[in-house]
Amino acid sequence: MKSKSLQAELDEYKEVLGVDLYTRLCRRINGNIVQEKRQSDSVLAVQDGVLPYVKGSLVEIPQNMLDNWDWYQDQLQTWHLLEHPYLWSFDGLVEFEGKRYLRGERLQGTPLSLYSTAFKASEAIVFLEQSLSYLEFLHHSGMMIGGMCPERIFWSEKVQFLDIGSQYLLALHNHMPGMPLNLEWEYQPPEVFMTAQVSASADIYALGLITWEAILGKRFHKGDSLGEMMQWHQHFYPKKLHGDKLNIPEALSSLLEGLCNKNIEYRTTISEALAIITDLKREYVRDQPAPATILASKVCMEVQHATLEMVRIPSGSYIRGGADPDGFVDSDDLPAHSVTLRSSFLISTTPVTQELYEVVVGQNPSKYKKGSRPVETISWYDACLFCNLLSMRQGLQPHYRIPSGDAPQIEAIADSSGFRLPTEAEWEYAARAGRDAKYAGGDDLDVLGHYEVNRRYFGPIAVCSYQPNDWGIYDMSGNVLEWCWDGYDEYPDKPVVDPDGSSDEDYKIVRGGSWNRGQAEARIRKRKWMHAASDVDYLGFRIVRTV
User: Fold this and answer.
1) What pairs with residue 509 in β-bridges?
2) Which one of 352, 381, 394, 415 has the fewest beta carbons within 10 angstroms of its own beta carbon?
3) What is the pLDDT of residues 373-430, one digit of tens each?
4) In terms of pTM, does the model score above 0.85?
């Protein structure tokens, strides 16, 4: 894997950028690196730049790896081929100011060694679940970390490991008979001090101890010498996490004590721990983010004289379908099943208005015309075309490949940054906003949406006329039905991850109820489908973007 100078990459764009912008960008990149270096000795998180190669993070390659460069390149090849949601991935090497860095996806959050807030119980449970999932994957791949430390674990609602065990393998590679292994000793279990033999169980012990410290909000001083650390792990580490004083569930405290058991024979295994965590999550973990987190993430963009407001929805899981809180259920709502969305996304806080549609497309097909009302009389094809036109107007890659013709076979472009229709799973996740309610925002539709019973006149009304849901999203129950990307299909009878919908069906999912329909149509769980060419006066859409 060849490295390339970051400065050289930047220089290639000098002519395009112009001298002033080039100079400012260089200063910005250098400033961010200096700032991040103060926070961490090994990680540089370059903030969003205007060029693709500075969007992401640079992770400094340790000197001992550079000293064994031929050997380490094989390790990098192994790392590069591994794929797991909680392992940081990189796509190249760069050189900067005489040092080498791995360049990859943006690291979110902070190294645990610098994390300033003690974990709450729910946070510790999620952290453990994700970390154990990664360890299980690594161990099943015939690998282990063998020297875990908080400096190489990033956390912010999602864990990211910067470690596949290279430091441990390098210690074995360079080991001289009769000499102690050059390991990361701070989090090694007692048996490693006694035998110098590291097993996968050492990772479990280290994870338990690191989580223990995160809950307490402090790092135990284990000594400075190898002998002092051995004494600490054998005799002096805390025997019990006092859950009652820290508001930690007894089951979580017991789990950590099991992970940190000094006797390897009685140490809790990964499968045992994950089973306990499943029970803990049901009682202590809220799958969806808190409303305040969502409301603080709103972004607005001006499109000529129109405004588009979107809100960032973090990744998460929920139970899709099933019965309403009052027990009502349609056959199409079944079976209830778990849905996990691994990527966050932006969703418009209102349906696309007539004002915005006319600015982008140049015409307003609506029957009930007024700029602040949702655009209606829109087919699924019209909605996809709007997304592409808005993307191009905002300098983004269009999300859809749209052939010519009256009813083209539209295809989604993978990894596009452009605007698009929500999937049915995204739509319901955003509508629920972390609540198990009948409608988007609660159980009283009269204060939440414009529908057949409370309408004052025919046709939709101005967006935002009723209360939003807990995430600040309006009109998801009532006003106009909304197109989703998915073709209609029956629900699966097993958990799904990132369902993207079938685009081959002629009949597409519509959601949310409308001004000329009753309460049953406005239910969050209610599924409807219409032909993609339908363009009736109670049918509109809202848009999303993957971030």
Assistant:
1) 529
2) 415
3) 999 999 999 999 999 999 999 999 999 999 887 778 899 998 888 999 999 999 999 9
4) no
